[in-house]
């Protein structure tokens, strides 16, 4: 069956779609009440975040827009030191979308949510004119345990910045699909909880964390430098990139420093904690390619010490003429 | 200036758009930290809701998609008896959207949020291929005071259902714009807080509330009847519709019972509270056309006592062949 305008009318066709697809996979006590809003009991500090997902194609190597939509918001909550708990899901369906595709994506969201330990407690679906596309917004609430103070404004001179793994995989995967290049590059789309869990369990004092998504590492480092009023000095040779992504980006003239990821993060610790933190996350499957990439200095902006021994300023990404990749 | 792909890249062009438009209007302490998520202190029961807005045209008589996007989620929170506090805003911008239009819409959201007493604490913007369109998701958190128990499952025999005013205005307004009919019908797009405030301040025991949006009154009454396992008997002559909307819908063969609204609600009280509740909300500007429209009976489904003295079953809306109106 194809999605049509009746599915967005709020009437019986909408209700059937809810029951047959969303209700089948997002089944929980809160959602099944079908009220205007979920009612939840919360006590303490929370993180509250939103993200919209417009990736095209909606299915790709390593994931799909459903998995991505859960990972993205869950990761944003994790990056504030929170334990993700509740998500909402807002769908925009284009007319002509195959309901089998929608069901596969909803099932993928449910599976990813279950793995992340979050409940989808409220949702909304609209239908627009189009050619079978699909966009998903997720918003999330996570609980922040007492004593966690994670902020991009916390960096100070001497701190060390660690990246959790190889860069550029999501970007290279989506771009390959869009321009029709055959390769084996998979999106890194995933939930960063194994890494944050390992850090907190081992009592590493994390000062700042951020997932490295749109805009890439270069952009996140600039945001950190600006928020903390300091300079960041990055070592070119320390930036982890797989051989396949390196080859792909060399051919297309892309810089992994600005390529998007969906399962990578950086975090900042004091110099004393750096080796221990690196050792700990390298024990996790997700963090096995982690690397110390940068140090925090006095000053402003991001400077790269290049392979050849020179220095160059690393600006934020301006924008891209290439097809959108997230 | 027109929106282009660079504005969605997560780099400098995105950051400039944030600063020049979103930062200018959505300025508050939480948002200005520019972290991955807002950090908030919450204690107690909350309502958590999401809604996506795809109305076309994005500007219409009585409002715009920005105003609508705040009213919609704020109203969903109000309908659970909550005091709305925090919103997130997720934008999907189509390439070619004029940034002046975007700014007008963002300003409208900020004004409406301020009137509703809510803060926009987190946001996200994506850019997609298109022809200058715009879609907005808002998700919201509201605090539920102790002792409130509002649920569509609370109806029991003898209860009375009151609608807050004339039906069909949003639907007629948007449809007029889409099919090019000139008239003076304005959308009722607005925040229902004056009505909920009046009810709670006067200690009316509200059993259930719902805003009457997509699907119209007929659909909401069916949802209530099903959730509570009862029948609802509606009086045709009691349904408030303005003369202009009545004329418009007669010409097009539309039934106000299924037309969408964006500033109307129904609520359910016991028979003893009905006259007092009606009197109270009729004192508010927003509720001046309120009317007792239905009674709760044993049985199932929704029955209408018609103008001519007959009875007919009122089903949910199935779907519509007409242009989408919300």
UniProtKB/TrEMBL annotation, chains A, B:
Occurrences of domain PurM-like N-terminal (ranges): 35-144
GO terms of biological process kind: protein maturation
Coiled coil: none
Signal peptide start and end residues: none
Pfam families given in the database record: AIRS, AIRS_C
Domain of life: Bacteria
Domain PurM-like C-terminal: 157-303
Family: Belongs to the HypE family.
Protein name listed in UniProt: Hydrogenase expression/formation protein HypE
Organism phylogeny: Bacteria, Bacillati, Bacillota, Clostridia, Peptostreptococcales
């Amino acid at each position: 069956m194809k999605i049509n305008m009746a599915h967005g009318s709020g009437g019986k066709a909408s209700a059937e779609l809810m029951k047959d697809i969303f209700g089948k996979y997002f089944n929980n006590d809160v959602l099944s009440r079908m009220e205007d809003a979920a009612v939840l009991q919360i006590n303490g500090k929370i993180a509250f975040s939103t993200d919209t997902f417009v990736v095209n194609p909606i299915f790709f190597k390593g994931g799909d827009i459903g998995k991505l939509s859960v990972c993205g918001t869950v990761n944003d909550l994790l990056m504030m030191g929170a334990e993700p708990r509740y998500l909402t899901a807002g769908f925009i369906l284009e007319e002509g979308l195959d309901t089998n595709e929608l069901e596969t994506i909803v099932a993928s969201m449910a599976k990813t949510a279950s793995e992340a330990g979050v409940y989808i407690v409220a949702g909304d679906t609209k239908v627009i004119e189009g050619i079978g596309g699909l966009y998903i917004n997720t918003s999330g609430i996570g609980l922040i345990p007492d004593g966690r103070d994670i902020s991009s404004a916390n960096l100070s001179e001497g701190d060390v910045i660690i990246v959790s793994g190889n860069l550029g995989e999501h970007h290279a995967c989506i771009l390959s699909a869009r321009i029709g290049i055959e390769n084996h590059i998979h999106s890194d789309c995933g939930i960063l909880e194994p890494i944050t869990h390992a850090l907190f369990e081992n009592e590493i004092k994390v000062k700042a964390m951020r997932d490295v998504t749109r805009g890439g590492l270069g952009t996140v480092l600039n945001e950190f430098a600006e928020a903390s009023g300091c300079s960041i000095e990055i070592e070119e040779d320390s930036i982890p990139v797989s051989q396949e992504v390196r080859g792909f980006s060399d051919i297309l003239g892309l810089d992994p420093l600005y390529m998007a990821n969906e399962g990578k993060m950086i975090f900042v610790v004091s110099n004393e904690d750096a080796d221990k933190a690196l050792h700990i996350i390298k024990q996790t499957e997700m963090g096995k390619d982690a690397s110390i990439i940068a140090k925090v200095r006095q000053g402003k902006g991001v400077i790269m010490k290049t392979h050849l021994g020179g220095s160059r300023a690393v600006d934020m990404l301006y924008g891209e003429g290439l097809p959108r990749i997230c």
